[in-house]
Amino acid sequence: MNTQETKNEQPCNFFAESFVDYHYYDFGKTYLYNLFTGNLHHPTIQVFRMLGNGLNESYRLKHILSLDRDGLGGVFVFNDSIEATVYWSHFHYEVVLTKFIQHGITRFLFSVYGMKNGADKPMALINELLREATRHSSVANKFLKVKFVIDDDDHTDVALDIQLANIVETSLNEIFLPLEIKEPLELYIDCIKEYHRFQKPLRYLLSGKPGTAKTKIIRAIANEVKGKATFIFKNGSEGDVNSVFSFAESFSPAVICIDDVDLLAGDRRDGRSQKLAEFLQHLDGFIGNNVFVLATTNDKTLVDIAASRPGRFDMILDVSPIKSNHYLQLVENKCSLPEIVSLFDDEVLEALERKNVTGAFLVNLVKHLELVMNIGKKIIDREYVLHTLGKLNSGFYKEPEPTNGKVGFEMM
């Protein structure tokens, strides 16, 4: 976000402007409109006048064109540009949100003018409006995926691409977890639900090899507190740390879910020291105190020791493969064909135990057997199960890569 602020010789004319991405432009127009119409109220911000220009028209002010927003709720303001007279901090300001084309690139500009002596905090008003507009936006308390777009015209200008995320419904009770893992996860859920009382955000790191249900645990937590917090999903290999935390801090509470955090907070000698420093600063709580963090890694030794020390992450949970005494229970839970369940006898269960398979591997094995039986081209017996087990195992359980950048939340 590029910003600038100027003060002319006349003390009654203070000016600030900020290039913002589309979502802040959209949130800002909607928020000002809701204040103007009385749909929302703010203790220190009042909007007395609001006009806008129509789509693809010359700059000719007229009434605001609005429509109920499908799917997301709230109101969508159609006008490309709006003007609003705002009373804030005992002074009047003129606020302008504009969409325009610059060098073939669509830009969005947020401008504020001080109208009288003493109206000398236009940038502070921009920041306050952006915070409040985001907090009251249609994406608040939703599941969001964020990516980052570098402006082609100004490579220092980073924009957030925000999309609603579809999270598969699940719960912690559906995941085979030992008590020492389940109890701290339940505490995490309770702290989100009771954030209005305690305001103590937690930061957890989930460590375990692929297939140990790390991503499923995060989905379960999100579903347990659906509508009570804004969840922001990102991959550790993507984007600017400060931008995603700044966006999250507009919500109360927010949960940042970072898959493959080792790509973001890896060893400080591997060329990512700036990202790591920014990440550590946020974990230390220097900026904001309403953001929870849920991070995953395939190997906690890949995360820098400074990032994983106590006080930055509240807890590091080692998520282990499913215990062998739960194999049959998981098969019964996931398989709809009793003929297949009956094939998981002591010999097959012992083979699974020798290979120390994960829950994800076992679910995939059951899925394969069900497909083969339903199609009817193979005879399904113990020997076929053992053969398939060996074949799948040789493919999945090679030496694991730390990440390929396209797993976890990308697959939700």
Topology (elements, then pairings):
Blueprint: E1 2-7, E2 14-20, H1 22-37, E3 45-53, E4 66-68, E5 75-77, E6 81-88, E7 91-102, E8 105-114, H2 122-135, E9 143-150, E10 158-164, H3 179-193, H4 195-198, E11 203-207, H5 214-224, E12 230-235, H6 241-248, E13 254-259, H7 273-283, E14 291-297, H8 305-308, E15 315-318, H9 327-334, H10 338-341, H11 346-355, H12 359-375, H13 382-396
Parallel strand pairs: 9-12, 11-14, 11-15, 12-13, 13-14
Antiparallel strand pairs: 1-2, 2-8, 3-6, 4-5, 6-7, 7-8, 9-10
Helix pairs in contact: 1-2, 9-12, 11-13
What would your notes on this structure say?
The chain has 412 residues and is an alpha/beta fold. The protein has three domains: 2-138, no CATH class; 163-320, Rossmann fold, CATH 3.40.50; 324-396. Helix content is 33%, strand content 25%. The chain has helices spanning 22-37, 122-135, 179-193, 195-198, 214-224, 241-248, 273-283, 305-308, 327-334, 338-341, 346-355, 359-375, 382-396, and strands at residues 2-7, 14-20, 45-53, 66-68, 75-77, 81-88, 91-102, 105-114, 143-150, 158-164, 203-207, 230-235, 254-259, 291-297, 315-318. The strands form three sheets. A seven-stranded mixed beta sheet has the order 10-9-12-13-14-11-15, with helices on both faces. A six-stranded antiparallel beta sheet has the order 1-2-8-7-6-3. Helix 6 (241-248) links the parallel strand 12 and strand 13 (254-259). Helix 11 runs parallel beside helix 13 (382-396). The longest helix has 17 residues, at 359-375. The two termini are 29 Å apart. The model is unreliable at 1-11 and 399-412 (pLDDT under 50).
